[in-house]
Specification:
single chain, SH3 type barrels, 4 helices, five-stranded antiparallel sheet, alpha+beta, 7 strands, flat, SH3 domain-containing protein, about 40% helix, two-stranded antiparallel sheet, about 180 residues
């Protein structure tokens, strides 16, 4: 089973990267320039690469902090793969050395393939919810039209009163408390 987990997760030897340039690299909470800055790393800091995207790389700093850094601020280690798309998935287990170990691994692989097929069939048989059920009604309680009228008129009257009070406050302030 450990072989299956290693294959499915795409776990390979972790790649490395170094902060390059003359400026500090901001570590962000997400893969966006609008994401919150967690901390800043000085040039020359060695990092562990967890995942590589188009513009950002998810890293793990020496102190254990994980976050996202702009790709242009990093020099990636060319010897190690940085993502599942750029290199084949390799399990981090030793190859079987005996026939019985090979048979055990093949058996585990067959069980994993059967489990994948079972989950695919289960997913295909699960009915998809129509889009209309996903949209929520803005007001789930149906109100009587008279109640609507009272609510709307009440809100209108409240707005008018607040407007009058604001204008009175404004003129008093402008006239330094003199009565009109």
């Amino acid at each position: 089973m450990s072989l299956l987990m290693a294959c499915l997760c795409g776990a390979a030897a972790a790649a490395g990267a170094v902060v390059q340039g003359a400026v500090n690299a901001n570590v962000r909470s997400g893969s966006s320039e609008h994401a919150r800055i967690i901390r800043s790393l000085p040039p020359g800091t060695v990092l562990e690469v967890l995942q590589t995207g188009d513009s950002f790389t998810q890293i793990k700093a020496p102190d254990g902090t994980t976050g996202w850094v702009l790709n242009r601020l990093l020099k990636l280690d060319a010897a190690a793969p940085t993502s599942a798309a750029s290199a084949p998935v390799v399990a981090s287990v030793a190859p079987p050395t005996t026939v019985t170990e090979l048979q055990t691994v093949q058996q585990q692989l067959k069980l994993a393939q059967q489990e994948i097929r079972r989950l695919q069939v289960q997913a295909s048989q699960t009915p998809a919810k129509p889009a209309s059920t996903l949209v929520m009604d803005p007001l789930p309680v149906q109100l009587n039209p008279i109640v609507w009228l009272v609510l709307v008129l009440g809100a209108f009257v409240l707005g008018v009163l607040l407007g009058i009070l604001w204008l009175e406050h404004r003129y008093r302030k402008k006239l330094h408390g003199l009565r009109i």
